[in-house]
Design brief:
heterodimer; A: alpha/beta; 12 helices; 18% strand; B: 141 residues; mainly beta; two-stranded antiparallel sheet; 6% helix; 35% strand
Chain lengths: 381, 141
């Protein structure tokens, strides 16, 4: 596993031309824009791409066709929003072994406007065992983890709200973020109740967006336009789909396994990070991920979001793009934390730049902590 | 009769004994004959020990409220129960967890607590489908 460390770099990272509410753009357009922009960012051409890694409604074949290329390596692993994080690890292996030379991990989703989207159909399991009781979508699921966490560990609604407040402080510094006005804990607690324990401001945005990253082997990365970001470690795991099958409802085994694998490959420990990106579909997600990754004991993850720790100027900045909560969340958010980590490690983040950012953690979930993907990224070998 | 809830379509073959049982007001669960552990949802290989020798038995219908949410709006167009309603994860006495609704209690987070004892209530939806709902043990209060 260690021979994979630093063998591959992220050399391009970009979003679609626009993010937000985009009824004038199809899902495929958002996706293709993102690939074009990321390839351009790398100083490469679309015709250089020979590996396509994508998840969701578009298969890699659809993207290859839309781009007019014939990739010699494809991967369509779809295990939820973290699929793109997982696929950076898959691209790492494929590139390392020479199965492709320029890989693009890409995403496009018309999550808000639903332009050119295939309607989702219930599969047998949610149709029989969840939908009849009124379950429908993530905001009727993740609260189960959260309510139980409050019962077992004494966490509070005020503590979850702090995650939204901290993340919004970062969004205020990101011109691309959808929601930038400051909020308080009281604003979160007084926002519209949606599904207890979540009010509106505990739940991510729903937007239209695309994003992509380009990877190549370290030897070739030197010739690209931007400073390379090394993939030091990558991990993945899946545990369940339905929450009734999650063994410990307040601790993600998949996240633990994914993190351990990425940290071992990278040869890093918890104290080595100075920037963290965590998939924030709900305010309770990031603290529980920190607990499952072993940064702290169960119940203590929320303390990372106190003023002066995760916030601008803090000792351990978290979700510096403004997260799914305030920047963008198209449905499968996982590509965006990779883009932000890449930008931070390049030093390209302007007002929100984390000083001396050299080792970044990206950790995402698929479904309801069902799947996990972890990356350790660095601007140094 | 207008349906109040989205009903399963289809019922999958491996789950037929479960739905047949509910129609007779019985909560039937699959159990592995090799490791003797019950599981839910129904499937043909035991998720605990991976044996394939599965039997069905009638569960007690008792359990505890493992976790809950309160829906303040409708999340599924076919679901016509008026909000607020309680979305429940039940841990059955026999071990498996299942999703349901908690009824017979005010949908107020201050009045509902994790681990409170609950019992099954059968609610007929159609000639084919009866759903297992749960209420605080000892009946509605």
């Amino acid at each position: 596993m260690k021979e994979l460390r630093n063998s591959v770099c992220i050399v391009g990272a970009e979003e679609s031309d626009e993010l937000g509410t985009l009824p004038h753009k199809s899902q495929l357009t958002l996706h293709v824009e993102a690939v074009r922009n990321a390839v351009r960012d790398a100083g490469l051409k679309i015709s250089d791409v020979d590996g396509i890694f994508t998840a969701g409604q578009h298969s890699p074949a659809t993207i290859g066709e839309a781009l007019g290329i014939v990739p010699r390596y494809v991967d369509g692993t779809t295990v939820g929003g973290c699929s793109f994080i997982i696929m950076v690890g898959h691209a790492l292996v494929a590139l390392h072994h020479g199965l492709c030379d320029v890989a693009v991990v890409c995403h496009g989703e018309s999550g808000r406007s639903q332009v050119g989207v295939t309607p989702r159909r219930d599969t047998a399991i949610p149709g029989q065992y969840e939908a009849p009781f009124g379950f429908g979508g993530a905001s009727t699921m993740f609260g189960m983890i959260t309510t139980r966490h409050m019962h077992e560990h004494g966490t509070t609604l005020e503590q979850w709200a702090q995650v939204a407040v901290s993340t919004r402080q970062w969004a205020a510094l990101n011109p691309k973020a959808k929601k930038r006005e400051p909020i308080t804990i009281a604003d979160v607690l007084n926002s519209r109740p949606v599904c207890y324990p979540f009010n509106l401001l505990n739940i991510c945005l729903v937007t239209d967006a695309g994003g992509a990253v380009v990877l190549t082997r370290a030897d070739r990365a030197k010739d690209c336009a931007k400073k390379p970001v090394y993939v030091r470690g990558a991990g993945e795991a899946t545990e369940h789909v339905s929450l009734t099958q999650m063994k410990n409802l307040t601790f993600s085994e998949a996240t633990k396994k994914s993190g351990a694998k990425a940290f071992a490959m990278a040869g890093v420990g918890h104290k080595d990070f100075n920037h963290i990106m965590l998939y924030d579909a709900f305010t309770s997600g990031p603290p529980i991920m920190l607990e499952s990754l072993g940064f702290c004991k169960s119940g203590e993850g929320v303390t990372f979001f106190e003023q002066g720790r995760s916030t601008p100027g803090g000792s351990l900045p978290i979700n510096t793009n403004g997260g799914g909560l305030s920047y963008t969340h198209s449905g499968m958010y996982g590509i965006f934390p990779i883009i932000e980590a890449t930008r931070q490690l390049r030093g390209d983040c302007g007002a929100r730049q984390v000083p001396k950012c050299n080792v970044s953690l990206v950790n995402g979930m698929g479904g309801m902590l069902s799947a996990a993907g972890t990356l350790v990224l660095s601007n140094e070998r | 009769m207008e349906l109040e809830r989205p009903l399963p379509q289809p019922i999958t073959p491996e789950a037929k004994p479960y739905w047949d049982g509910l129609r007779e007001q019985k909560l039937m669960l699959p159990r592995c004959r090799a490791c003797r552990r019950a599981f839910f949802y129904p499937r043909v290989v035991c998720p605990h020990c991976h044996a394939s020798d599965i039997e069905w038995f009638q569960a007690s219908g008792r359990g505890k409220l493992f976790s809950f949410e309160i829906g303040y709006q409708t999340f599924n167009k076919a679901f016509k129960v008026k909000p607020p309603f309680v979305l429940a994860m039940i841990e059955l006495e026999e071990g498996p967890r299942m999703m349901s609704n908690l009824i017979g209690i005010e949908p107020d987070p201050k009045k509902i607590r994790c681990d409170m004892p609950v019992e099954v209530v059968f609610e007929k939806q159609s000639d084919e489908i009866t759903l297992p709902l749960f209420r605080p043990a000892g009946g509605a209060r």
